[in-house]
């Protein structure tokens, strides 16, 4: 059997469909694409080589199961293999590598578990293609909105329904991937941090307390389009000029709240749409997208109120209309405390450096946590870079993640060592 670090490297390359992780334009495997399907095929091949039973569910999630007793509880692990456009080869992929590696370690030690272990390779986790994230895990927990999803399109005007059908899935029945409450005893995901805290502080493992899901606002300013050359300055109702101060207010106030809060708080004006967006026309309509995140839901609501109050002031000062639409409002997800304590104990026993932290990004585990006790482990991202070709996590850190996950599984599934 090859050494673990060699196996990790080979598995990482195989799942990324490459012979080198150094790719100038990164990796592009969008949800329900041919590239994602090929990566899922590699997952099935590797899982089969570990003597795991593989299957695809109705929405396209791939399962690899070490089944010892159909009536025994099941411990779930997993992550995803899709990427953003020109993303890195570690986001999601490392979680699949670590889950497979942990089972490999148990088999190498000839552990005979008393519980089943299931690795889930979730489909279409990223929102890069359709603007909807975690489609696979949402479907599994029953959080499906077919009416909304059916006509959502990618940049080539392909709808989610069309993409799923092209992938070979049945739109009428994909919701049957739903799992009953007794399907899992617990679930755990390993992921790269996608931030700089672990790397900067030379910490090997992050044990995640909560996931700071967003409130997202669309703020629309309605002014008056007119000719840039013939409209006098005092006659104008420039929507862009009127709403522009909000951008600095969001930045400044969020930074101040973050200084004073026990929990991390961030807010970003992340999209701007100016209409008609012509050089010789005064902007008559401007849409700003604001992303607000924290594990403290009260802080998020307070910030929305701050934005609403400031927009009323801008309306009055500029004689324009401003509309605020709340397009996403997700409660923060707090992960299972017992699992956090078990991971803490394992890191202490293995003398692995760790810290407790929150996640600023969403992951499939945030859906699983709504139904089953769930945990999330972070390993470092070099320089905090993610969703970029320079995304990188050393093999050493992945190997540490495998050792923690393997130790967790060994304690959870019990069993004995076979000769």
TrEMBL record:
Keywords: Hydrolase, Manganese, Metal-binding. Its cofactor is Mn(2+). Coiled coil: none annotated. InterPro entries: Amidase_Cbmase (IPR010158), ArgE/DapE_CS (IPR001261), Bact_exopeptidase_dim_dom (IPR036264), Peptidase_M20 (IPR002933), Peptidase_M20_dimer (IPR011650). It holds the Pfam family Peptidase_M20. Residues 215-317 form the Peptidase M20 dimerisation domain. Belongs to the peptidase M20 family. NCBIfam families: hydantase (TIGR01879), PRK09290.1-5 (NF006771). PANTHER family: ALLANTOATE DEIMINASE-RELATED. Homodimer. This is M20 family metallo-hydrolase.
């Amino acid at each position: 059997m090859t050494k673990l670090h060699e196996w990790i490297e080979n598995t990482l390359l195989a799942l990324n469909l490459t012979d080198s992780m150094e790719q100038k334009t990164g990796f592009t495997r969008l949800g329900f694409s041919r590239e994602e399907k090929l990566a899922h095929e590699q997952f099935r091949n590797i899982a089969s080589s570990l003597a795991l039973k593989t299957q695809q569910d109705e929405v396209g999630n791939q399962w690899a199961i070490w089944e010892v007793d159909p009536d025994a509880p099941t411990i779930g692990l997993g992550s995803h293999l899709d990427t953003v456009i020109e993303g890195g080869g570690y986001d999601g992929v490392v979680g699949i590598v670590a889950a497979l590696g942990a089972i490999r370690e148990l088999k190498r030690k000839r552990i005979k578990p008393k519980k089943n272990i299931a690795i889930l390779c979730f489909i279409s986790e990223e929102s890069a293609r359709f603007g909807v994230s975690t489609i696979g895990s949402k479907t599994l927990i029953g959080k499906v909105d077919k009416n909304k999803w059916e006509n959502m399109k990618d940049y080539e005007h392909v709808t989610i329904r069309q993409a799923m059908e092209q992938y070979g899935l049945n739109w009428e029945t994909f919701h049957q991937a739903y799992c009953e409450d007794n399907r899992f005893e617990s679930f755990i995901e390993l992921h790269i941090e996608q931030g700089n805290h672990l790397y900067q502080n030379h910490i090997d493992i992050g044990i995640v307390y909560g996931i700071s899901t967003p409130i997202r606002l669309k703020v629309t300013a309605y002014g008056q389009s007119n000719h840039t050359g013939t409209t006098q300055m005092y006659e104008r109702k420039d929507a862009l000029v009127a709403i522009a101060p909000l951008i600095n207010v969001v930045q400044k106030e969020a930074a101040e709240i973050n200084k004073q809060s026990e929990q991390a708080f961030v807010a970003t004006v992340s999209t701007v749409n100016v209409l008609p967006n012509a050089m010789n026309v005064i902007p008559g309509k401007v849409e700003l997208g604001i992303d607000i995140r924290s594990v403290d839901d009260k802080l998020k609501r307070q910030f929305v109120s701050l934005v609403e109050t400031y927009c009323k002031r801008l309306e009055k000062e500029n004689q324009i209309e401003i509309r605020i639409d709340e397009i996403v409002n997700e409660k923060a997800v707090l992960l299972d405390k017992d699992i956090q304590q078990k991971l803490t104990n394992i890191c202490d026993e293995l003398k692995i450096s760790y810290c407790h932290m929150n996640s600023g990004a969403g992951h499939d585990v945030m859906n699983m946590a709504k139904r089953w006790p769930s945990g999330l482990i972070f390993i470092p991202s070099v320089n905090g870079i993610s969703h970029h070709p320079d995304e990188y996590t050393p093999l050493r850190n992945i190997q540490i993640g495998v050792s923690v996950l393997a130790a967790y599984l060994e304690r959870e599934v019990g069993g004995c060592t076979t000769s």
